[in-house]
Structure formats: C-alpha cells, structure tokens
Write the structure tokens for this entry.
Amino acid sequence: VPAYHSLLVQMTPGSIGKDMLEQKIFELITEKRSDHEKGETWTIPVNYEGPDLEEVTGRLGLSVEELIRLHTGTIYPVFFIGFLPGFLYLGQTPNELHIPRKAIPRARVQKGSVGLAGSQTGIYPCESPGGWQIIGTTDFEWFNLNSNSPSLINPGDSIQFVAV
C-alpha cells in the first residue's frame, strides 16, 4: 500500500525470506514508477477567486496574475489520495507558491476547493474541515463515492490546472 513517503507491506511472518521480500518490494516500486509514466493527464478548470487568494498573494509577494501563472504553469503528479476519500495530493508546486497551512483550520471548506499547503496543491472532493490555503474552486467532478471505481483520477496521473 503506497503512501506519500512510505510503503506498507502486509504479509504473514515467515512466509517469505528477506531476499525475496526485497525483490518483491523492488518489483512493486518499479511497477508503480512504470504506472506513473503511463498515467493520464487531466485538465482541471479553476476559478481563482478563493477566500485566501488575497492573503496568499500578499504573504508570497505575488500578484494574482503571477500566482495564477505559476499555479497553471506546472503539471502536477498525483502523489496519493488521502486525508479524506478523494482528496488529491498534488505536487510539487513552484518554490514561489510554498506557503504553510492555515494556523487555524476552517470548520468548512467547500467541495471543489483548490488549495496550497507547504509544497503541494490539492483539491477537496467534498465539503469538510481543512487547513489548506484556498486559492480557487473547480466544478470538475472526479470523485463519486457511490461508484464501483470512485475516483476518475488516481496516483500516477497528472493534473494541469487552467484558469476560467
């Protein structure tokens, strides 16, 4: 089970030797790298009028236009889906967009919010609490919990944002 900086291996103790385990892990990592190279690139429209946009541009010393240019000028790999079902962790953002999470998280962040936190950008799949700096929103539907395959977008895919 891959995560951001780790890999969980589930196994029965004694069922496999150390050398074979190392080989299997290497094969899994190689397979995941290959999957990443084959991933789909998704274009996601963003309305850059998020509630934190002015605060973020002020703290980063950027104009709104510069922030949008930097955010849309990068193709972001989907690192993983987590925190809540369908939340896309994307990165890495350009250095000029690195900003810490909010000191006090919001109780409610609207579905489709696009945020910045640290060196990443992410998209909220549903309304939830959250501490990311919200710079915009999207109406793009990529997650449906009632579907057999809930997320259209998966780790190994990439995201290109476009301003609308």
The two ends are 36 Å apart (CA to CA).
